[in-house]
Amino acid sequence: MAKEFGRNARVSSQMQKELSLVLQRDVQDVRLGFVTINEVVVSKDLAVAKIYVTVLNADEQAKKTTLNCLTN
Predict the structure, then answer these.
(1) In this structure, are residues 32 and 66 in contact, taking their beta carbons and an 8 Å threshold?
(2) CA–CA distances in Å: residue 65 to residues 1, 16, 42, 54
(3) How many helices and strands in the chain, by DSSP H and E?
(4) Is 6 helix (H, G, I), strand (E, B) or coil?
(5) 8-state DSSP, 52
(6) What is the pLDDT of residues 34-64, one digit of tens each?
(7) Among candidates 8, 53, 51, 50, which has minimal Cα distance to 35?
(8) CB neighbours (10 Å) of residue 40?
């Protein structure tokens, strides 16, 4: 019987929590606006993570700027 919450799920969940905290506490960029970390998907070997975000209350240019800030 497989574990319901395996290591990948625990790492994904913890990464989502930590990223949210970093955005709240440490990032002081007024261009970001309201950013939500929706989901984090981690590969089986934990080498790669895909982070899904939502940016609210911003026009298209502000959204692109926000994504550039988050990826750099």
Answers:
(1) yes
(2) 45, 21, 25, 13
(3) 2, 2
(4) coil
(5) E
(6) 888 999 999 999 999 999 988 776 667 777 7
(7) 53
(8) 20
Pick the CATH number of 7-71 from 1.10.12.10, 3.40.50.2300, 3.30.700.20, 3.30.300.20: 3.30.300.20
Rounded to two decimals, the pTM is 0.71
Write out the E strands in the chain.
Answer: 34-42, 49-56
What mean pLDDT value characterizes the chain? 82
Assess contact for 54 and 36: CB atoms under 8 A.
yes
Nearest to 26 by CA among 61, 59, 69, 60: 69
